[in-house]
Design brief:
The protein is elongated, with a radius of gyration of 17 Å. It is built from three helices and no strands. The protein is an all-alpha fold and 111 residues long. The protein has a domain of 57 residues.
Amino acid sequence: MATANTTSSKQSSEPAAQAWPDLLYSSDVPMPIGIRPGATIDDVENLLSAKLVQLEAMLLATHGEAGESFRCRSDVQQDNFMWSCMDVATECRALFSALNDSHVNQEGGAA
């Protein structure tokens, strides 16, 4: 389960943090991720950034010199690894969608 850990030292004069609904996505094995109530847009952006860095690191193992070792793995291991990459990419898509929806709602545009 993915979580965002940040501490806040905001002044009481700042607007209250936006409450996020549960963010769910589906895959072959349902693995819900959640955005905690009280999370800020910055928290979600930080989580998305961390997930993208994880995905980039994972995919670096699939090409170039590292890819030679990857291609020596069994078909099942390669499939499982790529399935993991797809799950992280799906989480990223869900987080981006939540950020985009939040931005549209804050700007007063159509949701």
